[in-house]
Amino acid sequence: MPALARVVAPLAGVIVAVALFAATRGLDDVARGEQLGPGFWPRLVLIGLGLASAAKLVENLRRAAPTDHAVARAGAAGLGGVRRGTLLLAIATIVLYVALTPWLGFPLVTVGFVAAFMMLAGARSPVAIGAAAVLGTAGLLYVFVKLVYLPLPKGDGVFETMTLALYRGLGIF
Questions:
Q1: Which residues, at least 6 apart from 66, have a Cβ–Cβ distance to it below 8 Å?
Q2: What is the pTM of this model?
Q3: Each residue of 58-95: b (16+ CB within 10 Å) or e?
Q4: What number of other Cβ atoms are within 10 A of residue 104's Cβ?
Q5: How far apart are alpha carbons 62 and 45 in whole angstroms?
Q6: Taking all residues of the chain, what is their mean pLDDT, rounded to a whole number?
């Protein structure tokens, strides 16, 4: 890849992050005293985007231009060892997660999503998968519902009732 091409995308990421960060100035005008304003999370993501893009820019500038032989080898490797079937299943899992969350609720779908994604990534221990899925979901619930006051989808009907019971059981509300 030519040197200019290795620099353009990360540099564009830094520029976009800075420009969008500046555009978030007025988002906190409606914030209450002790609560995080609506601009907190977008700014946090934009800082992450800017830092990651800057790190990639520095990495690409430091790296020597690859030889034609190295480029040919990398092209022959394809997706770097990722099987297309696994990749398609991962994409389908993400789409299914987004589609089911409004109906089944964030907690139930997130537990399933984390477990499914861990299995796709190669995790084999049912105890580790179950613990990560349950504890990870509980952690997300505390952060987003209790700390940030972000309303997550509760689901419809019986799933909403289950979500509310879970929130009460965890002391979220």
A1: 1, 74
A2: 0.61
A3: eebeeeeeeeeeeeeeeeeeeeeeeeeeeeeeeeebee
A4: 22
A5: 26
A6: 86
* Count of CB atoms situated within 10 Å of the CB of 36: 15
All structural domains of the chain with their residue ranges: 3-77, 84-170
Model confidence pLDDT, tens digit, residues 7-61: 898 999 999 999 999 988 887 776 666 777 777 878 889 999 999 999 999 998 8
Extract the tokens encoding 165: 């019971």
Rounded CA separation 48/60 (Å): 18
Lookup: tokens for 85: 């079937």
DSSP conformation letters of 16-83: HHHHHHHHTGGGGGG--SSSPPTTHHHHHHHHHHHHHHHHHHHHHHHSPPPPHHHHHHHHHHTTTT--
Q: Please state the φ and ψ torsions of residue 150, each to the nearest 5 degrees.
A: -90, 120
Task: Write out the two tokens for 53.
Answer: 């893009």
| Helix H or strand E encompassing 115 | helix 106-120
Phi, psi of 79 (to 5 degrees): -85, 20
Q: Are 100 and 111 in contact (CB under 8 A)?
A: no
